[in-house]
From TrEMBL:
One of its GO terms (cellular component) is cytosol. InterPro entries: D-isomer_2-hydroxyacid_DH, D-isomer_DH_NAD-bd, NAD(P)-bd_dom_sf. This is Hydroxyacid dehydrogenase. Keywords: NAD, Oxidoreductase. GO terms for molecular function: glyoxylate reductase (NADPH) activity; hydroxypyruvate reductase [NAD(P)H] activity; NAD binding.
Length: 334
């Protein structure tokens, strides 16, 4: 079986523990005659470059803590197996232009992110943040005028039609929701095949649904594209959730609309991360917040590790790999 001559793993001990539990680390070790593991914690960029050229690996296994690749690469390096998602921080575009193979976690975490979106949807419908704060700190209890809402039978709008959207649609099916999608790649024929409605613009998506979930990638065309005018189309009592990218929304406008108290908001992503301690979103009882952890959850990072191991085996056996980052994918990715 063809094998890579050497693999360099640049992972922290925690990343190894979470992404490669059980025998997974041993399975990677079996793929190459030479495997070197380095902990990138406190590794300077100059030391990282020196290490890369010293080891001259054919395959680099990388994750969140791995330092950026330098402008020049060691001559043997052919493949970067990235355990996480966006690779733009790690890999300059010119390396892919010159033939470097790069894969990421692909769709392995999509269902977990969709689950996170559903969490925020349900939190908004049930006014969960209000009751959590009030019951913990104010001794509150329901009254005859307390209101809550169910997701069953609701109209849900989704912006984007990637894998997370597909997984969210599947999770919504048991609720009997009418689902509409606004996405450039959704045609009426595809929508009909999937039992969806087409929303032809953001105005329609906001105006016609009880729940709106933002899942668009962050590219120049989507940055700040959800404006105050769009958000003011949301009907009273509706829910707006963003688990895509924070900067696709005019966050100041969203804060102003949320402060009006007529809608519920669920946010996992923000234009500035970590979210500043004095952010106005933090003290609103109609806003649910999570710190960019919709996915993968700690216990499911093994899914991304298993996907990476599958790609490493495919590379070793000279078979096609999944979720290869091409130049078009690189350019439209977040």
């Amino acid at each position: 079986m063809p094998r890579p001559a050497s693999i360099l793993q640049c992972l922290t001990p925690i990343e190894i523990q979470e992404f490669l539990p059980g025998s997974s680390a041993d399975e990677i070790r079996a793929l190459a005659p030479v495997l070197t593991t380095v902990d990138p914690t406190n590794l300077s960029h100059s030391a990282w470059r020196d290490l890369l050229f010293q080891r001259n690996p054919e395959v680099l296994v990388a994750c969140w803590a791995t330092p950026d690749l330098p402008p020049e690469l060691p001559p043997a390096l052919r493949y970067v197996c990235y355990f996480a998602g966006s690779i733009k921080r790690l890999v300059p575009r010119e390396h892919i232009e010159l033939g470097l193979i790069v894969t990421n976690w692909g769709n392995s975490i999509s269902r977990i992110v969709a689950e996170g979106a559903l969490l925020h949807v349900l939190a908004g419908m049930r006014n969960f943040t209000h009751w959590t704060i009030a019951m913990h700190t104010q001794g509150a209890w329901k009254s005859r005028t307390s209101r809550s809402a169910s997701l069953f039978g609701r109209r849900v709008g989704i912006r984007g039609f990637g894998r997370v959207a597909h997984e969210l649609i599947a999770l919504l099916r048991p609720f009997g929701c009418t689902i509409s999608v606004f996405a450039p790649d959704l045609t009426p024929a595809i929508a009909e095949q999937n039992g969806l409605r087409v929303a032809f613009d953001l105005n329609e998506l906001m105006r016609e649904n009880d729940v709106v979930v933002e899942l668009a990638p962050l590219i120049p065309e989507t940055r700040g594209s959800i404006t105050k005018a769009h958000l003011e189309l949301l009907r009273p009592g509706s829910v707006f959730v963003n688990v895509g990218r924070g900067a696709t929304v005019d966050e100041q406008a969203l804060l102003e609309v949320a402060r009006g108290g007529q809608i519920f908001v669920g946010l996992d992503v923000f234009g500035e991360e970590p979210l500043p301690a004095d952010s106005g979103f933090r003290n609103l009882p109609n806003v649910s917040l999570t710190p960019h952890l919709a996915g993968p959850t700690t216990d499911r990072r093994c899914d991304a590790g298993a996907f990476a191991l599958k790609n490493l085996r495919a590379y070793a056996e000279d078979r096609p790999m999944e979720s290869v980052i091409t130049l078009p994918i690189y350019d439209r990715s977040t």
